[in-house]
Batch of 4 targets.
Target 1
Amino acid sequence: MTLAIDARGLVKRFEGKTAVNGVDLAVPEGMIYGVLGPNGAGKTTSLRMILGIIDPDEGTRTVLGNPRPLEVAHAIGYLPEERGLYQSMAVREMIAFMGALRGLPLDQGRRRADKLLTEYDLGDVGRKQIRTLSKGMAQTVQLLGTLVHDPKLIVLDEPFSGLDAINQGRLETLIRARRDAGATILFSTHVIAHAERLCSEISIIAGGKVRYAGSVDAARDRLPSRVVLRTRAKEGAWRADLPPDTTPVDGNWHFALPSTGIESVLQALITHGAGIENLTVERPGLHDAFIAIAGADAEAAMNMASAGDMA
Ligand SMILES: Nc1ncnc2c1ncn2[C@@H]1O[C@H](COP(=O)(O)OP(=O)(O)OP(=O)(O)O)[C@@H](O)[C@H]1O
Ligand SMILES: [Mg+2]
């Protein structure tokens, strides 16, 4: 397996405060990889070190096989967290200009800009000035400018924030299409649902450290499935047959799936006259796994950060 990004032991301090405290990040080529974490976790600082925009105080990073990321900048597309475009430029020129900054000749950039805009159903905005666009539309134009030189590695810092639900869905489609065409995509997000839908692998960062790295599935498997059970009888001696962690919620019994399975619980309940009216066993989502891994404080911060963003 070739790694598009192999960062090890990244450390960054600002004015004596440690923002990133020994982050490793291994992103296999051809994968959609998500970095999750609350505000101030160190996501942006980590991405900026990986891209060579800032140098780490400690640690190394190899990007597309090169330990000096700026030398492979032409093969990288980067959507920074702070968006910004030249207001008086026309959309098509802006996209071509962004390609030129990454080494793509301007005339080719203009042709590709037209193609990208048409593919994204924005064929009619190419001649408009950036200042006339809505915020979400300007962000989409910036994204297309990030992709115009056909980068092998695409790094997107909070790409979904500021987009409405329709444009979030279109961005998900675009990210998958780039992956299918062979690119590697690394993005950061507060919104767990995007990572859950898109990523084969994720890292959860909190307090400048990686708390989890691996597949979304393995993160979910860290928690037991949840059982929601409705008994026909509402009270009785059979209550003792339910696992000790059982809580009543809206007339249902909630508990973690016992490691021995559900059968023995059901058998005892039936034998002792509880009756079974309804039963569901739900695998935990990434959201619950995130809380367990990053802690409740991190979850509260995530909720605050994503207020206003849509899932
Ligand atoms: N240039 C800087 N100077 C001083 N402190 C900084 C600088 N950049 C980041 N920090 C601090 O480093 C920590 C990590 O910030 P960073 O922007 O990497 O977090 P983040 O995970 O991207 O957060 P967010 O979700 O809000 O974007 C924060 O405490 C932040 O205040
Ligand atoms: Mg950030």
Target 2
Amino acid sequence: MGTTLVTGGAGFIGSHTSKRLLESGESIVCVDDFNDYYDPRIKEDRISKFLGDYTFPVHRISICDFEGLKKIFKKYKIDRVCHLAARAGVRASINDPFSYQEVNIQGTLNLLELSKDNDISNFVFASSSSVYGGNRKVPFSENDPVDSPVSVYAATKKSSELLAHVYHNLYKLNVTGLRFFTVYGPFGRPDMAYYKFTKKILSGEPIDVYNHGKHQRDFTYIDDIIDGVIQSLEKPHDYEIFNLGNSQTVELEYFISVIEKELGIEAKRNLLPLQPGDVVKTYADITKANKMLGFNPKTSVELGIKNFINWYKDYYK
Ligand SMILES: NC(=O)c1ccc[n+]([C@@H]2O[C@H](COP(=O)([O-])OP(=O)(O)OC[C@H]3O[C@@H](n4cnc5c(N)ncnc54)[C@H](O)[C@@H]3O)[C@@H](O)[C@H]2O)c1
């Protein structure tokens, strides 16, 4: 097996993917611009501590730098691409649409173009459950229409799927797009609700609970997501889109109660209305991923949160 380029390798899902690949003896190259959308110290720690036992090249460049990426493809004779770099926050995309367009669309196009030029054997990339927008039909299936995004972020992810389809169609690039459903776990993203809740509950501050805690999410534990990413990398498909979720949707209020129980502290709640761009319910139909990838998530929300809180307490001492 040749070298795998992991974009967003210092990110939450990228660092866990890198770890799994390195553990199985694969050669990787990581590209990440370590931007400060959230505190970049955790990105540094993912590389130096979480992945500290391994030696691999880390390139601190943007995926918008086409010439820089071109040199990396040539230098390491990249064989597979696992494209996880993105501007990833739904709410932030409404305030900063241009960065989302630049990184998620232009950056993805750069990688597709270079994958075509370098005869990449498999291009796996991160899409998102947010492409389902206000879909009312549950669970969400890959066959459902996704033409009504409700955030700029969702529109950029849908655009990535479309661009990737073009590169498959024109150049026979093998492409797999993964629609991740609310991923959580150790070394997670500090901008996500579960992480902020934990921090605030521990410091006695009130937590902002949107939609009065009534919205539902298909929270998916990081190790299960990584199973699906690795399964996709190992088995190229012509062009496929897969939902990767836990397929067990829970109410936000219940999720908070699990965090409270694990911390042994009751949260002070600021109950707020639904935010613009937010969707009320996400719920993955994973029949296709199960059948074609062997994807089979196993981690309950209770166990996943326990693992996260244990990591959090250890990381922040
Ligand atoms: N975490 C989730 O719940 C979730 C859900 C759906 C989809 N996704 C998608 O999965 C992927 C990984 O998400 P994550 O949660 O690990 O987010 P993350 O922000 O932790 O990781 C993304 C990484 O990409 C890097 N990056 C951003 N812009 C870049 C640029 N221009 N050049 C190079 N690197 C850049 C960031 O520095 C970061 O380290 C993203 O594409 C995201 O949209 C995540």
Target 3
Amino acid sequence: MRYHQLQPKNLDFSFHLLNSDNIQTLICLKDLLIKTSQVKGDVVEFGVGRGRSLIILSSLLSYLNSKKKLFIFDSFKGFGNIDFKDNSLRNPQKGEWSKSPDQKYQYNVKFIKKILQIHLHPKNKYPIKFVKGYIETNLPNFKKLNKISFIHCDVDLYLPHKVILENMWSKLSKGGIILFDDIEKGIKSKKFPGAVSAFKEFFKGKKIKIYNLKNRNNIFVKKI
Ligand SMILES: C[S@@+](CC[C@H](N)C(=O)[O-])C[C@H]1O[C@@H](n2cnc3c(N)ncnc32)[C@H](O)[C@@H]1O
């Protein structure tokens, strides 16, 4: 079936439609992928969710004629264990993000592949390496990542943030960037205090440069 025949007549994936939030994400990811295009290493997304940012990353890497590998990590079963550092009014629960809010769609690998098939023109498709499982279990033993130029970190919680930083920071090349989707300007977050705790614990005493995004209320770190 051709891409234009797959337009979501029978699907209500409104999350994936063009709106300000998605436009801002696009602008920000484009800017950071261009900034790191000459930096050695691959691109990694932690936290695939409904595949919204993945559609953008895939389109951009193909548009930029990138030769980098794109790895994506997710449990595809939603949140794992919640740490006490994650406590907030947002009240995250194990298994959240395993399904769409109306419970209609399971955010598993098959669903994400279908989303990519529906929402990406064939010219915007990019080879993707899916890594399924809880990050705290998978990542310390994952051997296929050597050098990294860009990380999109969108996993909300303390434990995966901690494990990502502990395992990926040494692999991030000089000039490489980590975009933290859940950490706001001023290193704070009402919804995801665990992400902030993991960030502060890991970077304590380390020399880093923190940047505020121009068009979104979150931050990225560049390795110097
Ligand atoms: C906010 S969603 C990501 C949204 C996505 N970037 C998008 O634009 O659609 C957070 C994702 O992180 C994943 N996640 C959270 N903790 C995880 C863990 N410990 N291991 C693996 N995946 C995890 C969840 O399954 C969920 O898909």
Target 4
Amino acid sequence: MKISVDDIPESGLSVDLSADGKNIEALAKGKLDFSVNSPVTAHLNLTKAGGGVYVAGSLKTRIRYNCGRCLKEFELNLNADFSVFYIRGKEDGREPELKAAEMDVQYFDGTELDTDEILLAQLALEMPMQQLCKPDCLGLCPKCGSDLNLGACKCANESRADPRFAKLKDFKVK
Ligand SMILES: [Zn+2]
Ligand SMILES: [Zn+2]
């Protein structure tokens, strides 16, 4: 959904929407390391402020990703509240002055906001760089590729000595 800045009344604009997850993925041009298979439902409050648009809202969706260590596929319900200030300008790498206030700033062309782009930016922020199925995922054995979460593989007996114990071996009691 495109929202023209001219259509936002001085009192602000409140929008409820459901965006197609596939459209949002397409906008990211393959840069997302997760997929958005469900619609993204969102509530947005848009207010004109200082030549830009202040957007506060919440979103809800379900995403699918592969664990960065064991590569297994997982689904995750994502709920996020956010507030972001859209200002006119290009992404030229310059830090906007508002950064000091720790406000999330995004750029737009100054005339029209695309709600899919707003939601994409928030989804990308919500997801940490490396997704794991659990914080202590053991991953795959680099030798045979077995999932070590399911138990030690045959290689374990050979050379996979825990580095913590390797250190202990060098420790001598005086
Ligand atoms: Zn994992
Ligand atoms: Zn192995």
